[in-house]
Amino acid sequence: LDEFSLINKFFARPHDGNGVSLGIGDDTAIIQVPPGEDLLVTTDTLVSGVHFPEATSAAAIAHKALAVNLSDIAAMGGIPHWFTLALTVPAADENWLSDFAAAIHRLADQAAVSLVGGDTTRGDLSITITLLGTVPRDRGVKRRGAEPGDLLMVTGSPGLASLGLDCITGNTVLDSAISAACVDKLEYPEPRIAEGRALREYATSMIDISDGLVQDLSHLLEADKLGAILDKNALLSLVDRQIAEDQRLDATLYGGDDYELLFTVPATHYTKLNSSWKKDFAPVTRIGEITSTDGVLLASGDSDLVPVNQRGYRHFI
Amino acid sequence: LDEFSLINKFFARPHDGNGVSLGIGDDTAIIQVPPGEDLLVTTDTLVSGVHFPEATSAAAIAHKALAVNLSDIAAMGGIPHWFTLALTVPAADENWLSDFAAAIHRLADQAAVSLVGGDTTRGDLSITITLLGTVPRDRGVKRRGAEPGDLLMVTGSPGLASLGLDCITGNTVLDSAISAACVDKLEYPEPRIAEGRALREYATSMIDISDGLVQDLSHLLEADKLGAILDKNALLSLVDRQIAEDQRLDATLYGGDDYELLFTVPATHYTKLNSSWKKDFAPVTRIGEITSTDGVLLASGDSDLVPVNQRGYRHFI
Predict the structure, then answer these.
(1) Is the pTM value of this prediction over 0.90?
(2) Looking at the predicted complex, does its ipTM rise above 0.85?
(3) How many CA atoms lie within 13 A of B34 on its CB side?
């Protein structure tokens, strides 16, 4: 066994039920998918210097690599179960690997997912995780499905992560407590698994915000040539008032890497959603409405509707 | 959309049934696993300059990246169905991507597997594929399960791929037709899917040969502290007689990257296996026997048993 095979010692743990009848250490894992459930599959790669600054801690990298995949399952209203880890590292650094493995296992335990396979190779640092989950047959919440008149809603406070990135890169200076909270949101996003599962009962369409609210909203709208009117005051309410209004609005509209859920619900479900929403869930906020006219507009209440520019979020670089 | 999102245009194809109810383009794919089947999961990463020489063609890289994963499913006696592709490339080179995509689709069609998700990122060239397959409940053929007295058998001619690598790197010079065949085996290994499925009826243990026959054999033996006696003449018969005997034996014992199946069968099943073996399958050869004594020995017929050294195969570099 070469040093890279040995790395597997950091990740191998006895499998723990959860449908896994054969875990790491054979040609493949063997898993029993619960009958009556659809299987969900997602994969995401994080590359050092592209998706995170090179100085990011091993723990934050590990957390994020799993969290972004958990978020994809959450955005379908699914329950995550099993994942594989393909880790490419420049060297077999025991301290780094031990921190990385501890952080992966910590989030895996928290989300009740099992590592069932992996591959470790030498090269520039990158992490690919493929995550499998399930959802009751035909109950997955897709990107397509919104109707004109549906309310547009969001969990948590999208925009914080990009403010965190701006703090790290020196593009902005914020109050130190706010800055720390934003950097934490960037490095340790919390996938909204419980929230996504609960929203299965209400949402007509759903996506997680990785590339910015406006850009990810376009994925909900484009298939059916729908539009949306965003409520400026609702958006501004999501982020701390100590931050300047322009910066707040910009972060909320275009900031990525938050992994909050963006979803639509029929107006008739709004009251029931709010009253049944659990106290330990991330809060949900109504931020706009779906329209039948192509295009995204911003309503500020005291003036005309203003078209919202499409603009991408480049994560890092 | 940035150039790397656009790369997805090379890979997106309408999904084609096969249990896929939602393919590429949402937060996750949605798949229906046939009832009564176990799910198999495997993942493998190929890194340029580590698993293949940098001069390798895009088509050969794509083929191999999928083939090595197909081989893992084959080694369980399973049927491959769905895969995700995480592709990291240094630049969005249209020609390269087009060749890569064509080769992936070609092998995917041949093996009847569907691409259900992917992620394309910028960085040093590496490819991670996660492949899902199925096998009837509890019928997966594991590495563990051999019994003393079982026959040790192999598909095809392990050793050719490493001879091909030696030809490419200039470590050896072979007759040009033989050299071409060996390089083809290195670059375009044929996963033994149909053979693996047929062996589900006979094999007590099975693995695919990626790290060399001796090393992969140790995985079949180690769990139960078994040993094996290898038949030197049978091993020599696998590779063209024009190649020197020592070189032939060395390649067969230690050469990796062949993705042939190594498996054990009870002696009582040998005749039935041979008589039922289909003409279009890769041939199978009996190369030895499992013993109850730890260690691997080589029998040459005309002398004493000689211990076989454990030695790894380093793929490339």
Answers:
(1) yes
(2) yes
(3) 16
Q: Are residues A165 and A251 in contact, defined by beta-carbon separation less than 8 angstroms? A: no
What letters, b where the CB count within 10 A reaches 16 and e where it falls short, cover A49-78?
Answer: ebbbbeebebbbbbbbbbbbbbbbbbbbbb
Mean pLDDT, residues A240-261: 94
| CA A243 – CA A249 distance, rounded (Å) | 10
The answer to whether A27 contacts B72, with C-beta atoms less than 8 Å apart, is: yes
A187 SS3 class: helix
Task: State whether B28 and A78 contact (CB < 8 Å).
Answer: yes
Q: How many CB contacts within 8 angstroms connect chain A with chain B?
A: 191
Does residue A67 contact residue A188 with C-beta atoms inside 8 Å? yes
What is the Cα–Cα distance from B127 to A218, expressed in whole angstroms? 29
CA-CA-CA-CA dihedral for B13, B14, B16, B18, to nearest 10: 80
Ramachandran angles phi, psi of B266, nearest 5°: -60, 140
pLDDT band with cut points at 50, 70 and 90 for residue A317: very low
Residues of chain B contacting A29 with CB distance shorter than 8 Å: 40-42
In terms of Cα–Cα distance, which of B75, B209, B69, B219 is closest to B146?
B219
Residue B108 and residue B196: Cα distance in Å, rounded?
17
CB contact under 8 A, A84 and B132: no
Closest CA to A53 of A166, A158, A159, A212: A166
Residue among B182, B158, B156, B157 at smallest CA distance from B169: B182
Q: Taking the CB of residue B18, how many other CB atoms lie within 10 A of it?
A: 14
Verify whether the Cβ–Cβ distance A28 to B72 is below 8 Å. Answer: yes
Q: Is the dihedral of CA A139, A141, A146, A149 positive or negative?
A: positive
